[in-house]
Specification:
The structure is a single chain. This protein is mostly beta strands. The chain has no helices and 6 strands. Strand 1 and strand 2 form a beta hairpin.
């Protein structure tokens, strides 16, 4: 018979006054609440070995993924490989939830 592991239930809120990048939980997968003011962007960077899910909760973001730019509106969800250049740029005050998981490949 295999041994099972019980994990604790963790809870966080996305509401609040946190600015910038707030890590919601310790450990994996890495879960981030990202807030950007209109006109604010994050320079191109990579998250090697990660699959990323980006959910835009409010605002508007142009998300550069490699050579492609994806324009996101509230409720849009995009999943992508973190091995490429990534740069979100807010065209309105914005809030997003990002989940960075270890790639399975």
């Amino acid at each position: 018979m295999s041994e099972s592991t019980v994990t604790e239930t963790e809870q966080a809120t996305l509401d609040g006054d946190g600015d910038g990048r707030t890590r919601l939980f310790d450990g994996e997968p890495k879960t981030i609440r990202l807030t950007l003011d209109a006109g604010e962007s994050i320079p191109a960077h990579k998250h090697p070995g990660r699959d990323i899910v980006f959910l835009l909760r409010s605002g508007a973001v142009d998300l550069m993924l490699g050579d492609e730019t994806v324009s996101l509106s509230p409720g849009d969800v995009v999943r992508f490989d973190g091995d490429q250049d990534i740069s979100p740029a807010a065209t309105a005050d914005s809030e997003a939830l990002l989940v960075l998981a270890s790639s399975s490949e």
